[in-house]
Amino acid sequence: MNKYTTILFDVDGTLLDFDSAEENGLASVFKEYEESGAYRTADLIGTYRRVNRDLWDAYEKGLITKDHITDTRFGAVFEAHGITADGIQTEHNYREILNHTAIVMPEAVEVLEYLQDRYDLYVVTNGFTETQKMRMADSGLDRYFKKSFISEEVGYQKPQKEYFDCCFEAMLGAERERTLIVGDSLNSDIKGGNTAGIDTCWFNPQGAVLTAGVKVDREIRSLKELKEFL
Predict the structure, then answer these.
(1) What are the structural domains of the chain?
(2) What is the DSSP string of 125-184?
């Protein structure tokens, strides 16, 4: 008999291809600067990703708020490249594009179809509420889940213990020893699972190296591998 009754799924990089959606959105908002002939979109995107990664790392450590991320990331990019532009307006334009770009990861639908009648499925994500709800709805994946726990609504974020405590308070009947989290991020998903005292499944399609100090119970290269043990 399978030990699990509850499966928690991360969204970006696990169920939805966030990298491709992000690339599309950034290319759109940076297009005018490349057309001026003074900047390369690839350079602007590279700077954005470095800035954004550092901000999200700080957010997941509880050092800054989500508003700080959205209020500063494009401004920091423009400052780094000597561009005079409105970072807040660019953020708004970018989010409008991102909100309506939902690219489903290969095998996600097949696997969720298989799991939905066998387990209680929940979404656990650090994304923005409006963005995640719209993208999950547009993708059609929201129908597979009993509830979505979005950090902006919860008041805490992965990998904080408080985030998972709030999730388990709302998941009536869920037992930690019978719960599995599936996600691509060692820092937020797997470390979060360790903190919460639940089993972890690392979705690692690129074959990245495991970080020391993080416990992984299962590692998969494709989502379809979940069907082999669930």
Answers:
(1) 6-16+102-228 (3.40.50.1000), 19-100 (1.10.150.240)
(2) E-S-HHHHHHHHHHHTGGGG-SEEEEHHHHSS-TT-HHHHHHHHHHSTT--GGGEEEEES
